[in-house]
Amino acid sequence: MSKIDASGSAVDQDESSLVGVPGSVVTDLRSRSRVIPAEFTFVDIGTAVQRDRIAAVFEPLLWGVLTIYTENDEYTMDCRPQEAPVFVRDKDIDYLWSFDIDFYAPYPYWRRGQERSFDGGIGTSVIRSKTINRTPVKITYQAGDSGMLQINGAQMTISNTHSKAITINTEDLTVIDSDGNSVYDIIDIATYPIEDMVMNYGDNEILISGSVPVIRWHELARSFF
What is the reported pTM? Predict the structure, then answer.
């Protein structure tokens, strides 16, 4: 890779104008999916095999993980190429080839470093995180476990009567067992929508009673440095 533009993602907003009132009122903010343009250069080894292999890697129908290594950390993002690469020979150095790729990422945030996890005991704990606000989490209860979980005020009660571990994903709003089956019925009482069970930048208060789940999340960032 010779160049990549990984600047911060844009935000859409819903707004409405009120009669007789100047300006407008913003009712909702949403981060857009993003496109990351990148340029690549490689040395031609004298056969088309190398270009065929590169084209196979950057197949637009295949999803993959884009990884950026910096001096400070590792950043990853799920994405796919928008189009197949078009190879262009350098006009001055005939053994150099280049191509451009636009990576499409529906979820616009970079995952920074390794996944974090918390499986502290019953009671109240405070976890400090450097993530963006409203970072989704994955909550795993083992087979037969039940209890109450509260994250930053959002609360739900779990009764896992199934014979398998279950995971609640607050990004895609799924509740599945270890075989991939949907088991949404394990949530007995949810005083908040499950998408409100999130981590924020700074201190996060976690309250647990009953069985202790494992809570996992990646610290997310709009851009890397």
Answer: 0.79
